[in-house]
Design goal:
mainly beta, seven-stranded mixed β-sheet
Length: about 120
Amino acid sequence: QVQLVESGGGLVQAGGSLRLSCAASAPTFSSFAVAWFRQAPGKEREFVAAITWSGARTYYADSVKGRFTISRANAKNTVYLQMSGLKPEDTAVYHCAADSLRVGDTQYDYWGQGIQVTVSS
Protein backbone atom coordinates (compact mmCIF):
# COMPACT_ATOMS: atom_id res chain seq x y z
CA GLN A 1 0.00 0.00 0.00
CA VAL A 2 1.26 3.45 -0.93
CA GLN A 3 0.02 6.56 0.85
CA LEU A 4 0.52 9.86 -0.95
CA VAL A 5 0.32 13.30 0.65
CA GLU A 6 0.35 16.51 -1.36
CA SER A 7 1.58 19.85 -0.06
CA GLY A 8 2.54 23.29 -1.32
CA GLY A 9 -0.75 24.49 -2.71
CA GLY A 10 -2.35 27.84 -2.02
CA LEU A 11 -3.36 31.16 -3.52
CA VAL A 12 -1.12 32.91 -6.03
CA GLN A 13 -1.53 35.75 -8.50
CA ALA A 14 -1.50 35.14 -12.22
CA GLY A 15 2.05 34.90 -13.50
CA GLY A 16 3.29 33.59 -10.18
CA SER A 17 4.82 30.27 -9.18
CA LEU A 18 4.15 27.42 -6.79
CA ARG A 19 5.87 24.12 -6.11
CA LEU A 20 3.74 21.14 -5.19
CA SER A 21 5.20 18.16 -3.37
CA CYS A 22 3.94 14.59 -3.25
CA ALA A 23 5.41 12.61 -0.36
CA ALA A 24 5.01 8.85 -0.26
CA SER A 25 5.02 6.43 2.63
CA ALA A 26 6.25 3.33 0.83
CA PRO A 27 9.98 2.52 0.87
CA THR A 28 9.55 1.12 -2.65
CA PHE A 29 8.30 4.46 -3.97
CA SER A 30 11.39 4.81 -6.11
CA SER A 31 10.07 1.98 -8.28
CA PHE A 32 6.76 3.74 -8.99
CA ALA A 33 5.85 6.07 -11.81
CA VAL A 34 4.11 9.19 -10.51
CA ALA A 35 1.72 11.63 -12.12
CA TRP A 36 -0.12 14.82 -11.31
CA PHE A 37 -3.76 15.30 -12.24
CA ARG A 38 -6.08 18.19 -11.56
CA GLN A 39 -9.79 18.77 -11.34
CA ALA A 40 -11.47 22.14 -11.55
CA PRO A 41 -15.02 22.72 -10.29
CA GLY A 42 -17.57 21.34 -12.71
CA LYS A 43 -14.91 19.77 -14.91
CA GLU A 44 -13.51 16.30 -15.35
CA ARG A 45 -10.16 15.33 -13.94
CA GLU A 46 -7.33 15.98 -16.37
CA PHE A 47 -3.78 14.77 -16.71
CA VAL A 48 -1.07 17.33 -15.98
CA ALA A 49 2.33 15.60 -15.91
CA ALA A 50 4.03 12.27 -15.20
CA ILE A 51 7.50 10.94 -14.52
CA THR A 52 8.98 7.46 -14.74
CA TRP A 53 10.43 5.70 -11.71
CA SER A 54 13.96 6.77 -12.59
CA GLY A 55 13.06 10.28 -13.66
CA ALA A 56 14.52 9.61 -17.08
CA ARG A 57 11.28 10.37 -18.93
CA THR A 58 8.62 12.96 -18.32
CA TYR A 59 5.24 13.62 -19.90
CA TYR A 60 3.15 16.79 -19.99
CA ALA A 61 -0.27 17.93 -21.05
CA ASP A 62 -0.11 20.48 -23.85
CA SER A 63 -1.74 23.05 -21.61
CA VAL A 64 1.20 23.09 -19.18
CA LYS A 65 4.21 22.40 -21.43
CA GLY A 66 6.89 24.99 -20.94
CA ARG A 67 5.34 26.23 -17.70
CA PHE A 68 5.32 23.18 -15.40
CA THR A 69 8.18 20.84 -14.54
CA ILE A 70 7.84 17.47 -12.84
CA SER A 71 10.82 16.01 -10.99
CA ARG A 72 11.55 13.53 -8.24
CA ALA A 73 13.93 12.93 -5.35
CA ASN A 74 13.77 9.22 -4.70
CA ALA A 75 16.01 9.49 -1.65
CA LYS A 76 13.28 11.65 -0.12
CA ASN A 77 10.35 9.60 -1.48
CA THR A 78 9.04 12.81 -3.02
CA VAL A 79 7.88 14.03 -6.40
CA TYR A 80 7.60 17.72 -7.22
CA LEU A 81 5.58 19.81 -9.62
CA GLN A 82 7.12 23.21 -10.21
CA MET A 83 4.47 25.51 -11.66
CA SER A 84 5.41 28.83 -13.23
CA GLY A 85 3.55 31.35 -15.31
CA LEU A 86 0.35 30.35 -13.56
CA LYS A 87 -2.96 31.29 -15.13
CA PRO A 88 -6.44 31.51 -13.61
CA GLU A 89 -7.39 28.43 -15.64
CA ASP A 90 -4.80 26.45 -13.65
CA THR A 91 -7.06 26.77 -10.62
CA ALA A 92 -8.00 23.27 -9.49
CA VAL A 93 -7.50 20.58 -6.91
CA TYR A 94 -4.23 18.86 -7.77
CA HIS A 95 -3.76 15.17 -7.03
CA CYS A 96 -0.65 13.05 -7.27
CA ALA A 97 -0.95 9.41 -8.27
CA ALA A 98 1.43 6.46 -8.38
CA ASP A 99 1.62 3.12 -10.13
CA SER A 100 4.22 0.38 -10.33
CA LEU A 101 3.49 -0.45 -13.97
CA ARG A 102 1.88 2.44 -15.82
CA VAL A 103 3.03 5.96 -16.64
CA GLY A 104 1.58 8.89 -18.53
CA ASP A 105 -2.06 9.83 -19.02
CA THR A 106 -3.48 6.54 -17.80
CA GLN A 107 -4.91 4.75 -14.78
CA TYR A 108 -3.04 4.78 -11.49
CA ASP A 109 -3.49 2.51 -8.50
CA TYR A 110 -2.72 4.99 -5.72
CA TRP A 111 -3.98 8.53 -5.22
CA GLY A 112 -3.44 11.38 -2.81
CA GLN A 113 -6.26 13.38 -1.27
CA GLY A 114 -5.48 16.44 -3.34
CA ILE A 115 -4.53 20.02 -2.65
CA GLN A 116 -6.10 23.27 -3.75
CA VAL A 117 -4.30 25.65 -6.10
CA THR A 118 -6.02 28.96 -6.75
CA VAL A 119 -4.71 31.50 -9.26
CA SER A 120 -6.20 34.96 -9.07
CA SER A 121 -6.37 37.28 -12.07
